[in-house]
């Protein structure tokens, strides 16, 4: 893989893409951002009671939509969706099908350990011979940002993280990602794994045709392979409650200065 440093004006955008491409998009479910978070069993388990589950936004808005755009440019492209989890993941994967996936697969496995999840995806991807694997840069619940890298290591494929742009020129890709002070443009040959973030694509809403069509698109359940979890959760802690604000009269600047020096400094 070659790395090129450039500003947006210097990076040219190739438009020709590989025909008959197979893309695998990794989908995970996360609590809605407005969900009230609670824990059970001595704060060792997340409580899903009353929680509305959604597709992880980084998977949906950026990874999946960019794959759909590639398919719109070339109808020969095939988009497969993969998720790891129980049957409660199926409404989420059906929504991804409604957006534009061609076929979905669910690996029946607990998704509590990133390593186990990554190994399940890698094993599936190995048999599918995919040209591209897209993941979101992270999930919005655990913010681990590790799945793409571990799948890359397991498959021995090049990996570009935190991508904001993706362009193809035949069998080669230019992947842009933000770095301090500019952008890094990485050139790599397919097959390739990319984790996506804001800038890669724009959010879409499923239309009625897509929703109706998703009901008949294939969704296959696959039994998980056995892998030893590398992490475990000892307990969860909610962040401390926010303290109330203090309103200072404009006629009391001395009090404001005192609070900034004594109380704000101690926080």
Major beta sheet, specifics?
A: 10 strands, mixed
Strand content: 25-35%
Arithmetic mean pLDDT: 89
What is the CATH architecture assignment?
Answer: 3-Layer(aba) Sandwich
> Can you tell me the residue ranges where pLDDT is under 50 for at least 5 consecutive residues?
5-13
Class inferred from helices and paired strands? alpha/beta
Number of helices: 6
Broad shape? globular
Q: Could you give the count of β-strands?
A: 14
- First-residue to last-residue Cα separation: 46 Å
Strand/helix succession: EEEEEEHEHEHEHEEEEHEH
Strand order of the largest sheet: 1-12-11-10-13-9-2-7-8-14
Based on CA atoms alone, the radius of gyration comes out at 22 Å
Tell me about this structure.
By secondary structure, this protein is of the alpha/beta class. It has one domain: HUPs (Rossmann fold), CATH 3.40.50. Helices cover 27% and strands 28% of the residues. The chain is built from 6 helices and 14 strands. The strands form 3 sheets. Strands 1-12-11-10-13-9-2-7-8-14 form a 10-stranded mixed beta sheet, with helices on both faces. Strand 10 and strand 11 form a beta hairpin. Helix 2 packs across helix 5 and helix 3 crosses helix 4. The longest helix is centred in the N-terminal third of the chain and has 17 residues. The chain is globular, with a radius of gyration of 22 Å. It starts with a strand and ends with a helix.
């Amino acid at each position: 893989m070659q790395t090129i440093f450039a500003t947006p004006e210097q990076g040219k955008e190739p438009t020709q893409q590989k025909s008959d491409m197979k893309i695998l998009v990794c989908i995970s479910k996360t609590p809605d951002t407005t969900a009230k978070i609670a824990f059970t069993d001595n704060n060792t388990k997340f409580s899903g009671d009353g929680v509305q589950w959604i597709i992880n936004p980084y998977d949906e808005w950026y990874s999946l939509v960019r794959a759909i755009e590639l398919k719109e440019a070339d109808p020969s492209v095939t988009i497969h969706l993969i998720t790891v989890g129980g049957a409660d993941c199926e409404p989420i994967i059906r929504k991804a099908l409604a957006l534009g996936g061609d076929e979905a697969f669910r690996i029946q496995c607990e998704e509590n350990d990133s390593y186990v999840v990554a190994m399940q995806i890698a094993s599936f991807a190995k048999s599918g011979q995919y040209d591209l694997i897209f993941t979101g840069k992270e999930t919005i619940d655990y913010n681990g940002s590790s799945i793409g890298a571990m799948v890359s290591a397991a498959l021995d494929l090049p990996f570009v993280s935190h991508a904001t742009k993706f362009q193809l020129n035949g069998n080669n890709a230019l992947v842009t990602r933000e770095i301090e002070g500019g952008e890094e443009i990485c050139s790599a040959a397919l097959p390739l794994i990319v984790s996506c973030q804001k800038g890669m694509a724009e959010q879409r809403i499923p239309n009625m045709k897509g929703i109706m069509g998703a009901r008949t698109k294939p969704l296959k359940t696959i039994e998980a392979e056995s892998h030893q979890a590398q992490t475990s959760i000892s307990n969860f802690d909610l962040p401390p409650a926010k303290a109330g604000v203090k309103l200072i009269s404009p006629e009391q600047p001395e009090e404001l200065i005192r609070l900034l020096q004594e109380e704000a400094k101690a926080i």
